[in-house]
Amino acid sequence: MSKILIRGAKVLGGEPQDVLIDGAVIEAVGTGLSDEGAEVVEADGKVLMPGLVDLHTHLREPGREDSETVLTGTRAAASGGYTAVFAMANTFPVADTAGVVEQVYRLGQEHGYCDVQPIGAVTVGLEGKKLAELGAMHESAAGVTVFSDDGKCVDDAVIMRRALEYVKAFGGVVAQHAQEPRLTEGAQMNEGVVSSELGLGGWPAVAEESIIARDVLLAEHVGSRVHICHLSTAGSVEIVRWAKSRGIDVTAEVTPHHLLLTDELVRSYNPVYKVNPPLRTERDVTALREALADGTIDIVATDHAPHPHEDKDCEWAAAAMGMVGLETALSVVQQTMVETGLLDWAGVADRMSFKPARIGQAAGHGRPVSAGEPANLTLVDTAYRGAVDPAGFASRSRNTPYEGRELPGRVTHTWLRGKATLVDGKLA
Known about the structure:
Elements: E1 3-11, E2 16-22, E3 25-30, E4 39-42, E5 47-50, E6 52-57, H1 70-79, E7 82-87, H2 98-111, E8 115-118, H3 134-139, E9 146-147, H4 157-168, E10 173-176, E11 189-190, H5 193-198, E12 202-203, H6 205-222, E13 226-228, H7 234-245, E14 250-254, H8 256-260, H9 282-294, E15 299-300, H10 329-338, H11 345-360, E16 377-387, E17 406-416, E18 419-423, E19 426-427
Parallel strand pairs: 1-4, 1-5, 6-7, 7-8, 9-10, 10-13, 11-12, 13-14, 14-15
Antiparallel strand pairs: 1-2, 2-3, 5-16, 16-17, 17-18, 18-19
């Protein structure tokens, strides 16, 4: 059927309403809408939001299909309520040319359960020495607007300045992985009390904060846009807050795991908790939550980083860094932000759909749930509670830090331009 009636949904957490989808667009929003000729989905008070948008996803294809593919990664995205993801450039080969970003873009078109927008590398091979083909990637079929060497920091100030100058010409944004490499040589976890007690190499907060401070000043000097990936410290929050007060065009993201988990978990030596940037302290977690609530941090991004079993089932020092996150992100945000009273569901939609779509210029996404808008939607059973079982993940990888942990909320339906990608919690 081309028509779908979502009956009794709490749009952005408000009073129950009906939403009628006709083809790829929302035809009407109101109460008592006719279901004639429509497939009916009984929402029963579930929360309806615009489809989520993730500005920071690692899909691994091409080159590391043992970890994830565009197909499996977007299936995971649909399971988590996402209708668009931005795919990071650290693939093999690196997405530093028009040819590679177009390959990722076409894989998304052919196999994606959500829209896939490639992110282009800032430098050739992520080596930080020479600018990649920024203009060619932007002018390609993929229309790249976000550029990042994520996984590595653009630590050369001259290269970073030139990148900011280049993307300014077409309204692009550089997304920085803020990690001063010399300050993190041999680092295994957050530098602090726990690292000292465990004897593991420490990753100081200043390694992140010094790069953010430099880059917001560069962005101000150039008059360009900079986006801070996976901000993780209280000090970083203060720098971004200061930069915004000066009118600098900076945006920032926080991951779900940095909103919930702390470095105390590393005492288990379980490599599932090894991530870049590392899990920080309770003080940092509190600062990140407050900054997301007050808008200093603009968005939630998953940094979904899948790895095969053998890359995590090993000793801590040898383990890969990263966690999967697409299928649990909304639940973690519900627990840390909604159930604590820091955000309502309209605020969640703002941080996980409206703003990431705007930062990444994702056309048709992050739009209001109203007549005439694209039917990119997600329906959430906020009353659900259950333990996380990675065996049921759609992702090819299982490296979640939440295995066995009870989390609230479950996405039951996702629609991409009116086509169901998830129905009653099962992939369509």
